[in-house]
């Protein structure tokens, strides 16, 4: 994500957007799968393998993922009028770096409940 977002910092055109979208489609599934498998590992570490709370944990996760998708889109729609494309690229870069830091902090450090 950081590399593909870096392309947008150079210029926003059809080619760079296509590179960004292809890179995003290529790199996002491994990251999402890592988060999901880590969540199931955490659930299995709960008492009784988390069987009683599995549905609630998955629904809670999906609620926060949906909120995390909706809120930035609404803010972007409200404040994007007249925004310079370099600012959009910087916002995407900060988001990509944040995802990278979260991935390292959560999955690589084996965070426990």
Describe the structure in brief.
The chain has 113 residues and is an all-alpha fold. Helix content is 80%, strand content 0%.
Q: How many helices does DSSP assign?
A: 4
Total separate domains: 1
What general outline do the C-alpha atoms trace?
A: elongated
As a percent range, the share of helical residues equals over 70%
* Uncertain stretches of 5 or more adjacent residues: none
Radius of gyration: 17 Å
Strand content: under 5%
What string gives the helices and strands in order?
HHHH
Measure the end-to-end span: 28 Å
The pLDDT mean sits at 80
Helix/strand/pairing category: mainly alpha
Main beta sheet: strand number and arrangement? none
* Total number of strands: 0
Structural notes for this entry:
The protein has one domain. Helices cover 80% and strands 0% of the residues. The chain contains four helices and no strands. α1 runs antiparallel to α2 (14-44) and α1 (2-10) packs antiparallel against α4. The radius of gyration is 17 Å and the shape is elongated. The two termini are 28 Å apart.
Give the helices and strands, then pairings.
Elements: H1 2-10, H2 14-44, H3 54-79, H4 85-108
Helix pairs in contact: 1-2, 1-4
Features:
mainly alpha; 0% strand; elongated; transmembrane
